[in-house]
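The material for today's practical consists of a large collection of protein records. Read left to right, the backbone structure tokens trace the chain's path through space. An example says more than a description, so a record of this kind follows:
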Amino acid sequence: IEDQIFPKKCTIAAGSKIQIVNREEAVERVRGAIGARDLYYEQQHQQHSNELCGKGTWIVARTDCRMAYGFDEVIERCLRFEELGAEIIYAENLQSVEEYQQLRDRLDSRTVTMI
């Protein structure tokens, strides 16, 4: 689930001209995906109460906002995505190993990240 405006563009090619939704819309997209996934598994569990029904779908919450809004906005979005319960956090186009480490330092050590 990502925060680009449709149609999606390559963040490296678009640079600071990348079109990104505001933070609240990005959060609502992730919230909606998590809610839909959880509702599906809840319904499956009710229909098959004698069987184990785990959450086989993980939500990847992605932000492409680095070039358009800066690193501080990346941190804020990723923290919100983690707070909502996204299993994987993906911050696209970080500019250095140091930025990646700063993001990791702010997230829970159990949260999976992609680079």
Notes: The two ends are 15 Å apart (CA to CA). The first helix runs from residue 11 to 14. The chain has a mean pLDDT of 90. The longest strand covers residues 60-63.
